[in-house]
């Protein structure tokens, strides 16, 4: 009489194959949820930094690091032409401010258009230079704000 306890080799190979397919699907879920968490953190931090830059401009009327009030703009690159201005602030991947652009970090762009009829159009954008996990897309826009601000005595 033949012993019928245990599994055959074919049954074991099939179960390992099914387990591999299921585990690959579960791993994709973990990677996807990790990316969602990182993107949410980046968006939250980017919103705070962009809002801080806009509030700084609203409070002081300038984003020129040469006329800076404190060290918020330290290391920023500022340019002004024909009444419009542009400011770039650089951060590493952990949101620590840097003096130069980090290929793994973030760049905040604050652009103020020319004053027209007493209003200035402001745009704040944050770009992530490092790709997210399991993607190759670099220079991803994390967040963007736009607003119009009344400039007293201008325009």
List the helices and strands and how they pair.
Elements: H1 9-60, E1 77-81, E2 84-91, E3 97-98, E4 106-112, E5 119-128, E6 140-150
Question: Can you put this structure into words, describing what you see?
Answer:
This protein has 155 residues and is α+β, with helices and mostly antiparallel strands. It is built from one helix and six strands; from the N terminus they run αββββββ. Strands 1, 2, 3, 4, 5 and 6 form a six-stranded antiparallel β-sheet that branches. A hairpin with a 5-residue loop joins β2 (84-91) and β3.
Radius of gyration using CA atoms only: 26 Å
Q: Quick one: overall form? A: rod-shaped
The number of distinct helices, counting runs of at least 4 residues, comes to 1
Poorly predicted regions are none
Secondary structure tally: strands: 6
On the 0 to 100 scale, the average pLDDT is: 81
**Through-space gap between termini:** 101 Å
> Structural class, please?
alpha+beta
Give me the strand/helix succession.
HEEEEEE
Strand content: 25-35%
Main beta sheet:
6 strands, antiparallel
Q: Helical content, roughly?
A: 25-40%
